[in-house]
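note to self — DONT lose this again. spent like an hour looking for the file last time. sequence + predicted structure for the chain T wanted, 152 res
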Amino acid sequence: LPLRFWVNVIKNPQFVFDIHKSSITDACLSVVAQTFMDSCSTSEHRLGKDSPSNKLLYAKDIPSYKSWVERYYSDIGKMPAISDQDMNAYLAEQSRMHISEFNTMSSLSEIYSYVGKYAEEIVCALEQDDGARKQRLAYKLEQVVACMSIES
């Protein structure tokens, strides 16, 4: 769970939030993610003079972080289970509460980066779909990609 979900969220907050992540922020989040991974690790890490600086930065704090992680999982194990219905109701309420915080430009940027990466496959799929062909969506997408690449 820590490696597959939380480290990914820490390193890539733009997956969850409508934000732009600068290279400086990315470097800082890498240090935080490494510290988190070390805190969740069950093995002991031997540090020396050749160890990376991001591991040395929080090396003295890792033992206390490890105890926090152990207590966290212990506390979760003692909690009663939540029903799917309660979880869905909670998520719907959170979504409703934060609807005005949606960043359209950040979302469009993320969509465009995905489209740019897979433009050929998307255009091919649009050309094979009857409804998309009638609306000339492949051609329109190619125009958008061309326009955006000129502006970049």
